[in-house]
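forwarding from the other thread:

> can someone predict this with iron/sulfur cluster?

sure thing
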Amino acid sequence: MSEKFDIPFKSSFVPAVLEPGAKIKFNCHKGISCFNACCKHADIQLTPYDILRLKDNLGISVTDFLKNHTVPFEMDKDGLPGVKLRTDNEGACLFVNEEGCSVYKDRPTACRYYPIGHMAMREAGASDDEARYFLIQEDHCKGHEEGREISVDDYRQEQEVEAYDQINREWLQLMLKKKSAGPTIGRPSDTSLQFFFMCSYDTDRLRRFVLSDSFRASYDMDDAFYETMEKEDLALMQFGVRLLKQVLFGDVTIPVKENAAEKRVEERKEILEMRRKAEAELHQQKQEQQMKDAMS
Ligand code: SF4
Ligand code: SF4
């Protein structure tokens, strides 16, 4: 049974929550008259796990994937960075061809779910969030006219979204936390937004950061941790979410080295002192040279 739900009205949404057992009438297959129509007007937001799956499918680095296959956008009014799949000038996904989706086995979460929309909700006072589903009906999509009935749960299984949902869960919870904190948090600094982008999407840069001397000087992690971070993309991505939670939301789960902040201040002082001395020496050398020049 579905209940009424307060979704901002758009003609493509059926504004009613679907329970996991609710049935929808839908089927999509190669012989359908609208085959590929949805992918020719694609507006696909990517999750961190979508990026890993797609870059592996294409056999390229995260850096190249982000550069060549995505466009940045702002997820909210505070400028929280998101990424969408790049399209051609007509709005067609770069992965669609006559046969359908060329990255089908690694297609993004949003493509798997379509025409079911989903979002995480947390009731006032509840400690946990719950998934909510709703139906998206668009005129070009003829799948709704097919005879097949399928429950939301079975559709999710058929599209293999469960693994994606589980892996993205903590990251999605973070979005929810940010959203429910609302204006009390205020607009994050540019540095925080860049940090969010790195931890969420740019795992190549995150890896360089986690393996850097400054990270090692700040966090108390063992050798096995660094070995895993060096080799395993998924573990690195999941650590990125932990790091985000700790640095931006104060949810401390990563051990910090004692006096790390003080040591950093000391190191900074030493660097500044060395720079000051080098500048003083250079200044003295210049003065001596000027005197020599004047006397010659
Ligand atoms: S990734 Fe595949 S399914 Fe998703 S919009 Fe592109 S072509 Fe379509
Ligand atoms: S039925 Fe809908 S989802 Fe399937 S190809 Fe047609 S427009 Fe796309």
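Residues 49 and 100 are 22 Å apart (CA to CA). thats all i got for now
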